[in-house]
Amino acid sequence: MFRLVIVDDEPTVRHGLMSYFEWEKYGIEVVGEADDGDVGLEVIESLKPDIVLTDVRMPQMDGIRLSHAIKARFPLMKIVFVSGHDDADYLKSALKVNAVDYIFKPVDRLELAAVVERVVNELKEAEQERTYIVDMQAKLTQSMPLLREKFLMSLIRDGIPHSGRIKDRLDFLGLVLPSDAVYWTIVVKIDDSDQVVATRSERDQQLLAYSILNIIQEIIGKYMQGYVFENRNGEYVGILRMGEEDTQEEMLLGMAEDIRDSLLKWLKISVTIGVGERISELAALPQSYNRAQEAADHRWYLGKSRIISIDHLEHDNESVYRFDAAQGERIISVVKSSDKTALHAELDDVFIPLAQNRRLGFSNARNVSLQLILLTSRLLQELNMLGPDMEKKERDLWERIFKQERMADLRQIVEEHLLQVSESIEEKRKGKPKNVIERIHALIEQRYAENLQIGDIAKEVYLSSTYMCLLFKQETGETINEFLTKVRIEKAKELLSDPRNKFYEVCFMVGYSDPSYFSKLFKKYVGLTPSAYRDQMI
After folding, report:
1. Which of 42, 103, 136, 310 makes a 20 to 30 Å CA pair with 410?
2. Centroid of chain to Cα 462
3. Residue 199 has what DSSP assignment?
4. Contacts of 56 by beta carbon, 8 Å cutoff, 6+ apart
5. Which residues pair with 307 in a beta bridge?
C-alpha cells in the first residue's frame, strides 16, 4: 500500500480527513499526522511516506516552506495542498513546487477522491517505471559478458571507428584497454574442431566453450593482463596487454605453451596457437589479429598442437604450383589401369610441390583435390558406373575436403578415393562383382544365425567394408543388411511353422538376441507378429 502523512494545524480537519475518507479503497494507509510544518517534516523524514497532504497556512512552518524542504530531500514524494479559497498567492507558490493538486476547505469528498485517484495513478506509473528500469538494469548486467564479447570482436575486426567514444565504452563495459599501451594477440584454434564438436551434444558444446574460456583467462591472468573471447566456433582470441621489456615475447610464448598443455591435460583437446605481432596502440589490433590468424593457419604445413609465431615464419617467394590438364590425364590413366604404385607416384608429383608453398599451398591443394574428384566422376560417368550411391559418396568427399586442416590428411582422402575407384573399375572389367556377390550370398546363407557384422563379411571376400557395401548395392539394388534381414526372416518363417520351436528359441536361432526387437522386425516384413503368423500356419 501507499503511505500518507497529514499535516494540518486544525485538529478537526486532521480527524475528519483520517476518519471520514476511505483511504484503504485507494490502497493508501495513513501512517502519521502533524499539527505544523516543522513537526510534519520530522514525521516525514522518519516515515518517508509516498504522499503528503498538507495545509498551506500554519503558524511555525507553512505548507510552502514544508513543500520546498520535502522536494529537496524527497523529490519523488507527492504533495497535495489543502487551504481556504482566499489563498491565491499560496496557490501560485504551490504550482511552483509542482504540487499534485490544490484542494479548498471545506474538503469535498468527491473532489478529494478525484485528486487521490490521480495521485495513486501517478504513483503506480512511477512504480512501474522504476520496476522496468530495475528490470532493464538487471538484464543489462546479465548481458554484459555478451556485450563485452561483441565489443572485443569489433576491435579485432574493425579497430576503433569512433575514437572519441572509446573511453566511455570501455568504462561502461568494465574493460581496461588503454589506447596507447603495448598489445599482442593470440588465436587459439581447436584442431579438428568439426570432429570435436560432432561428438558432443549442444549442452556439452557450450560447456566445453565455457571451460576453454575459463582456462585460457586464468592462465592469461598468471602472466599478464588481457581478455579472451570466442570469436567463432573452434576459435578463441586473446587480447594481451604487456610491458615494454625485452623478455615480454619470451613470457608470451611460455604462456601460449601453458595454454596448449593445460587444454590437452584437462579437456583432452589439441589446439594450435598463432601469435600475432607486437603493436603499440589499441587501434592496430586488427593487424595483430590477422597476423595471428595467418600464423595459426600454418598448421596445415607445420602440423597440429603447435605454437606458431608469425615473426618466425619464413615467407617463400617460389612460384605458385599449377595443376595442368596433362597431369590430370595421367592420373586418370593410372586409375583406369589400376596401377597403385604409379598412382602414388603421380600424387607425389601433385602434393609435394603444393606442400612446399607455405603461402598458398593449402588453398591450392583443396582446389586440386576437388578437380581430381571431378575427373574421377567424369570417368565413372563414361563407364556407366556413376550411380546414386557414388554421387552421395562424392558429396560427402567434398564436405570432408573442406574440413581438413593438414595437407597429409587431404592427400589421404583423395588417394583412398582414387584407389577405390580404381578397384571398382578393375572389378567391372574382370566380371568379378558377380562372383563376389555370390560369395556374400553364400556366406550369409551359412552364417545368418551368428552375430554377423559387415566387417566379418568383408574379411571373407577380401575387400574393404566401404567398397564391398558399395559394390553389393550397385549389383543387387539392396544393402547387405537388408539381404541379411530378409534371409533371417525367411528362416524364421520356416522355423515357426514347426510348433515344437518356441518363439524365443526361433529368435536366437536366426541371429537375434532381443525377442522384442525380433518381433517388431518380423511384423514389419511379414505384416504379422510371429505368434499371429504361427496361428495362421497351424
Report:
1. 310
2. 45
3. T
4. 62, 63, 64, 81, 82, 83, 87, 90, 94
5. 273
What's the CA gap between 142 and 418, in Å, rounded? 54
Residue with cell 503528503: 52
Between CA 186 and CA 219 the distance in angstroms is: 13
Q: Which residue has the cell 570417368?
A: 379
| Cα radius of gyration rounded to whole Å, the chain | 41
Instruction: Identify the band that residue 188 occupies on the pLDDT scale cut at 50, 70 and 90.
Output: very high
Q: To the nearest 10°, report the CA torsion of 217, 219, 223, 226.
A: -10
Query: In terms of DSSP bridges, do strands 235-242 and 182-190 run parallel, antiparallel, or are they unpaired?
Result: antiparallel
Q: Look at the block and give the residue holding cell 598443455.
A: 261
Beta bridge pairs of residue 272: 189
Q: Which helix (H) or strand (E) holds 512?
A: none
* The pLDDT of residue 231 is above 90: yes
Nearest to 40 by CA among 23, 20, 59: 59
Q: Which helix (H) or strand (E) holds 103?
A: strand 101-104
Residue pair 392/479 in contact by the 8 Å Cβ criterion: no
Cα distances (angstroms) measured from residue 378 to each of 384, 389, 420: 10, 15, 15
pTM given for the model: 0.53
List Cβ neighbours of 162 (8 Å cut-off, separation of 6 or more). Answer: none
Between CA 296 and CA 286 the distance in angstroms is 15
User: Nearest to residue 335, comparing CAs of 395, 378, 367?
Assistant: 378
Q: With 0-12 CB in 10 A as exposed, 13-18 as middle and 19+ as buried, what is 367?
A: middle
CB atoms within 10 A of CB 159: 16
Residues composing the chain = 538
Residue 395 is predicted with a pLDDT of 84
